[in-house]
Write a structure and sequence with these properties.
The N and C termini lie far apart (about 70 Å). It is built from 36 helices and 17 strands. By secondary structure, the protein is of the alpha/beta class. The model is unreliable at about 380-395 and about 795-800 (pLDDT under 50).
């Protein structure tokens, strides 16, 4: 065998498309056809200096010292096969792999193989790095594609102008980007795929922390994407601390309103880090019972102990895989690292645990492998660290973490412990305020692979590492002070965000609140567990609008219940805000009597605390409740009071909303429509002046309703288009759901009863799923009845739509 090229190498992978089908068609003749295919390819590769690295079945792995030679060989091989029965796909990629006695090591090998895998028979695909070397002549840019190795997208080119079906790249679901391809685990990967393809519906991958469960599960999910109509979804559960929130978290990451909406889904759902939520395991069995085409892949440190579960125990790396993994990670921080016997000894010393190997590999930046091995030998007790009844590899991991922690200076040790207070990601500002960790501290921990940057200036501590850091924090005696600062930081953040949710920057602030949701949950849990009703009620009450607009009625009700349970001695200000938030929950659910009582209590308390803007909000909603209850005179007095307060405080938003609410009430009566329209336009103008997207959308909905009642259907559609786009831009679920009713009415007025019926079905189903009242005026109820009668219960309306699909249908219904 010729010597394998080193340095910059171009890899060529080939694979026969539809080989099983071809075997069935050709029968005994298949062997001869395959032999001829191999002969032709080997001749083409040898002609251009290719060195055959490996051959498995009908696939080739060939290395070339020059990219132009590799491309020429691929073209000759394709031409030699011609129009024969064998259709071969080929992929080329150039890199600088590590050449070891066992062969090539590095992500470039995996990248070339993945590029070939997304192609079609007769197609030659080329990576960006290869294109850069050979030039663009004859290459067609196919754009960027996510490959199933889950790393960053790759720009792919095709040799020649022939037309092929779309590449088989990763497109469905929400699987996150991985830092590098999966190393090793071929056997485990194949076994898990077979399990899920062959009828097993719940597979739990168990193993010690740091054994690579998550990365393997992500790869299994990626490999199965094409087998399931709806793809694969990743649900991170590490930040979720309350089992009661598992269902809503699954719904959030799979893009449905409630887990019950997955009843018709055909997908793989990966639930990552379930071990601390075992009391919710029964919900998975319930989910599978109502969703017959759903498969669940779970990672946990222990099995779930539910019916139908198949436990898959993940062992440490085999030695060859551990060496490959270590070298891959080490070369990421020090390019010139090469294989030497000390590397094998390091892998043995760390029992082949992926996390332990990754942490050790990061130190190659400052320690050669031999020096690293000596340090490991002095610092790590031999399988004796940690609890004696813990699994051996878990004790080894603990020792590795203890070793890494011991090598940090005192300042970094303090930062490492304190940063464990965060759930999910955190900003540098949060690290500074809560943990007294500055940029140098955070950068130092990133260098040690104890923190990971996740974009947008935020950082994440992996859960396995965070648990160890949390134990250190607990033992340090400062956990109470750190958690207090964490709660105070989130409370201050909520205070800063709250007024921004009605201003021109609300898109940004809704996004920031979504990003901090896990930390808000953690802060609320701490306040409730500590009996700190003051801060629990204050935090829950301050972010009421975020929950309300997003339709998170169940979660907000959960936190209000917990906060009020410990809030008997809370201040009037904290209680007032929380009462106002809980009143919105009642209003959303259609409990008018309870909502009215709470709005009245909130208005009274806010009058005592002097929070005028908040009090006006309570009064605005109370006015509507009074009108609904028939207390017209009192509603009018409250309106005068609210308008007076708004004028005195310069609250243009409140004045505008009062006008809109009044026009909405008049629309349900016999008022002159021109007067109602004028009042609506006044309110809308005020809201446009301050840039309140939520308010503008409400005003546009109101004008659309006036137009529908006056027969101006096209005018109504124009207003609804803008309203729906605005609500969608800030994630205002509640407004979107209610806009569906107006869009349904507009579709019916346009002579489209089937589309109208579908929108009404979606509106009603989403209201039920979110626990929202329908809030339909009598004239809209009449239109709904007429639409359903006219479309004759068409079968097309039987399919339930999620919010995204219903929103798109609504936009189609009101399109120009």
């Amino acid at each position: 065998m010729a010597e394998l090229p080193a340095g910059t190498v171009t890899f060529l992978f080939t694979d026969v498309e539809g080989s099983t089908k071809l075997l069935n068609e050709l029968g005994d003749a298949y062997a001869d056809v395959l032999d001829e295919h191999r002969r032709l390819l080997r001749e083409a590769f040898a002609k251009h200096g290719g060195v055959e690295v490996d051959t498995q079945g009908d696939a080739f792995f060939v290395a070339f010292a020059r990219a132009k030679d590799a491309l020429a060989a691929a073209a000759d091989a394709r031409d030699a096969l011609g129009s024969g029965p064998v259709r071969v796909r080929m992929g080329l990629h150039t890199g600088e792999p590590l050449l070891t006695p066992q062969g090539y090591v590095g992500i470039d090998v995996h990248r070339a193989e993945r590029i070939a895998a997304v192609g079609r028979g007769g197609q030659i695909l080329v990576s960006q790095s290869t294109c850069d070397l050979v030039g663009g002549d004859g290459l067609r840019d196919l754009g960027q594609h996510r490959l199933k190795d889950l790393t960053a997208p790759e720009r792919i080119y095709q040799l020649g102008e022939a037309e092929f079906p779309p590449l088989k790249s990763l497109s469905r679901g929400n699987l996150p980007v991985a830092g590098s391809p999966l190393i090793g685990r071929e056997r485990e990967l194949a076994e898990l795929q077979d399990l899920l393809r062959d009828g097993t519906r719940l597979v739990t991958i168990t193993g010690a922390g740091g054994s690579g469960k998550t990365r393997l599960a992500m790869q299994v999910s990626a490999e199965l994407v094409d087998d399931f109509r709806d793809g694969a979804f990743f649900v991170p559960l590490a930040p979720v601390q309350d089992a009661a929130l598992v269902g809503s978290t699954i719904a959030q990451h799979t893009g449905v309103r409630a887990v019950e909406d997955l009843h018709d889904a055909e997908a793989v759902v990966l639930l990552d880090n379930f071990e601390h939520l075992l009391s919710a395991a029964g919900e998975l069995s319930s989910l599978l019972s109502v969703a017959p085409r759903l498969k669940l892949l779970v990672t946990s440190r222990t099995r779930l102990q539910v019916s139908g579960e198949h436990e898959f125990v993940l062992d440490p790396f085999a030695e060859a895989e551990a060496v490959q993994f270590f070298l891959e990670r080490a070369r990421a921080v020090r390019r010139e690292v090469r294989f030497e016997p000390a590397v094998t000894d390091i892998c043995r010393r760390l029992d082949g645990l992926p996390l332990a190997l990754e942490l050790a590999a990061s130190r190659v930046k400052v320690l050669d492998p031999l020096l690293l091995l000596e340090r490991l030998g002095r610092s790590l007790p031999v399988l004796t660290a940690g609890s004696r009844d813990a699994p051996e590899r878990q004790r080894t991991l603990r020792a590795t973490l203890e070793w890494s922690y011991a090598l940090l200076d005192q300042r970094l040790q303090q930062a490492f412990r304190r940063l464990a207070v965060f759930r999910g990601s955190f900003s540098l500002e949060a690290a500074e305020s809560v943990a007294d960790a500055d940029l140098d501290d955070v950068a130092g921990l990133v260098d040690w692979n104890l923190l990971k940057p996740v974009g947008d200036g935020r950082f994440l501590m992996l859960e396995t590492i965070r648990e160890y850091a949390a134990e250190l924090l607990d033992a340090s005696g400062e956990i109470g002070a750190v958690r207090d600062r964490h709660l105070d930081f989130l409370l201050a953040f909520a205070e800063e965000a709250e007024p921004q949710l009605t201003g021109p920057d609300q898109r940004e602030w809704y996004g920031r609140l979504r990003t901090e949701q896990d930390n808000i949950r953690e802060a609320l849990a701490y306040a409730c567990d500590a009996g700190d009703g003051e801060r629990a009620l204050m935090l829950a009450g301050t972010i009421w609008r975020f929950w309300w607009n997003r339709g998170d009625t169940s979660e907000s009700a959960y936190w209000y219940e917990r906060a009020f349970a410990v809030g008997d001695e809370a201040s009037p200000k904290a209680r007032a805000r929380a009462v106002l938030g809980l009143a919105h929950v009642d209003e959303s659910r259609g409990d008018a009597a309870s909502a009215r009582r709470r709005f009245e209590e909130a208005a009274r308390l806010l009058g005592l605390t002097g929070e005028t803007r908040w009090r006006i909000v309570a009064l605005v909603h109370l006015i509507g409740s009074m009108h609904d209850a028939g207390e017209t005179e009192r509603a009018e007095r409250l309106t005068e009071e609210a308008l007076s307060l708004a004028a005195e405080s310069g609250d243009l938003r409140a004045t505008s909303l009062i006008k809109l609410n009044e026009s909405w009430r008049l629309l349900d009566g016999d008022a002159d429509l021109d007067s109602v329209r004028a009042l609506s336009e006044e309110g809308l103008a005020g809201l446009r002046a301050i840039g309140d997207f939520y308010g503008i959308a409400s005003g546009l909905d109101q004008l659309a309703a006036v137009s529908l009642r006056s027969g101006d259907v096209e005018g109504a559609c124009g207003n609804l288009r803008e309203s729906i786009e605005l609500s969608r831009s800030i994630g205002d679920t509640q407004s979107l759901v209610h806009a569906l009713g107006l869009a349904a009415a507009a579709a019916f007025a346009r002579g489209e009863p089937v589309r109208s019926g579908m929108l009404w079905e979606a509106h009603d189903a989403l209201c039920r799923a979110l626990g929202l009242d329908t809030w339909l005026q009598p004239w809209l109820e009449e239109l709904r009845t007429a639409a359903r009668a006219a479309e004759g219960r068409n079968a097309a309306t039987d399919a339930e739509l999620d919010l995204d699909a219903a929103t798109e249908l609504a936009l189609e219904a009101v399109a120009t």
